[in-house]
Here is the input.
Amino acid sequence: MKNQVQLIAYADRLGTGGVAGVAALLKGPLRGLFGGIHLLPFFLPIDGADAGFDPIDHTRVDPKIGDWADVRALARQVDVMADVIVNHMSIDSPQFRDYSKSGKASRFNGLFLTFDSVFPAGASQSDLQAIYRPRPAAPFTEVHCENGDKRVVWTTFTSKQVDINVRNPIGAAYLENILDILSSNGVRSIRLDAVGYAIKRAGTSCFMLPETFDFIDDFSSAARSRGVETLVEIHSHYSLQKQIAAHADWVYDFALPPLVLHAFASATAKCLKEWIKMRPTNALTVLDTHDGIGIIDIGSDRSDPIERPGLAAAEELDRIVEYVHQNSRDQSRLATGASAANLDLYQINCTFYDAMGRDDDRYIMARAIQFFLPGIPQVYYVGFLAGCNDIELLRRTGVGRDINRHFYDELEIANALKQAVVVRLSALIRLRNTHPAFSGTFELRSSSDTSLAVRWSLGIDAVSLYVDFASNEFDLQCSPVSWGELLDVINCQITERISSSDETDR
Here is the structure.
């Protein structure tokens, strides 16, 4: 994976040209900005109940946005990451329809995880209460099959997403076939979506079990044999991210977004600096993704909060949530928790630009922190364009995450690229991509409790960043002096604040 900033984007929400349109943007107005792209699920259908994460056919590009030739062409241009949705598929998939029609005679019998395959003798109340779940409802659905049978299947996320039995040979073959197709079409890194839920065992939480680590090891090994790197996606106690880092090529630094918000909300860098000292470095750094901003990632372990405290105290987590709600003028409150059809109750749904109160300087400071930490930075398309909360889309769909999943047409993209904050962010991205020091040695420097100071160096080349969260002082320095032109753009102080007309909801 290139040591350059990557873009996270949907092919149907960034312009109107699908996969080929994204490639054209990367060749055109976004040229030189991104060394790779995480192309969010482009499988059939891209516009399902869960924005592509409920595939009917995981091996087919949705023809509305292109085909495999378009993916291969994009992969010749930049590194492409794709999702392998290991935990589930759509209830409308041909595999499940065949199972519904033929039952035990189906060639897909064993592909889907049923309640009785995990609890053959039934489940006690304590068994059910122990199951870790991202939504308040039980993770089961009774399905009335076409052949007249009734089956209780695992549906961790929604009743339309049926869990796969990854330990069954049919389930394993299904996932390996997806891996073969992705690798043969130029995909060089994969994201294991919802892998924490992939293994279920009676009497446990059914989340990130020892067997789950074995599964990650095996699947990562299979990917590497095909020249593909693996990114593991887990929202949980921070110690788990450190464990996972030893089992996969890459992990997300999901603790970073809430810790950056905490630093600004509380005018302290103490928690952020403690995390920097211990965090894994084979990490993809993010401030925003297609999901919400995770709070659970810096909280205590709910099963043992005394022995496994979080990176921030419980009252500090509440402060972060309220900070975002206030900055977004309570728009995030409409999209978070039980207020909308959320799959994860432990995330705040809000664009990161709105979470920072649409303050250009603070937003650039936050991105600079992200880019300066060891790892590979990823920037979500809405965040790159300094997008605001899409209240209209939220109201239309009733899905909390849609507040941060705006559909941009080409004119909107062109106008967004002219915004001063996006011009500054683009310059910061170019600095991160091209300055030699970012391939050198990282140093967390001594600073006060209210500030953060970090430095990269390689021979005579060096870059340093200083941020004070109490005074909002920001200083970015580079050597040699030839980098001054980019610095002038990044450090530009915006004196005009967003006018009241700009704050009108889209």
Remarks:
- Confidence is low (pLDDT under 50) at residues 494-506.
